[in-house]
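Marked as duplicate of an earlier ticket. Keeping the data here for the record.
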Amino acid sequence: MRKITFLTVMALALAVIAVPAQASKSKPRSPKPKCVPHAVSFEVSGTLTTAGTLTANTDGTYSGSLTVQVTKTNNHAKTYKRTTQSYTLNHARVSFGHHVSTTAPAAGSRANLKGTITTESKKCGTFTPTITIVKVELHAAK
C-alpha cells in the first residue's frame, strides 16, 4: 500500500512539473481615443442684435449673417452663453414669424438657431470647432 501511495504522489509531482503553466488571459486594452472630428447638436437662442442681409436662394433656403445676443444654449454650446455671436448662414432653412421682415429682420427679434458643431475627444489636444447652422426661427420681439 505504501508503494502505491508513494508512486501515485511521485506521478502527480512529475505531472505538475511537466505541464506548463498557462498564461492568464488579460483584458484587452481599450484603443486610444481617435482624434477624428465629429458633429454634435448645437442650439442657441436669444435676441437678434443686428441682421446682415438675408438672401433667398432658389431652393427656398437663405444665406447671410445674423448677430445674436445668446441667452439660452444646449450643452455643446454652453461656452457661447451670455455672449454676442455672429453666425453665417449658408443655405439654412429660415422660418419668419408674424411681422418679421424676410430680407432684414428687426433688431430685438427673438432668434432660435439650430445646427451642428464639430468636436473631438478631450485627450486630443487643441482643436478649432466649426459651426454649421441649418435652421433658424425668427419671431417678433415681445
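See parent ticket for discussion. Strands lie at 38-51, 55-56, 62-73, 84-96, 110-119, 131-139.
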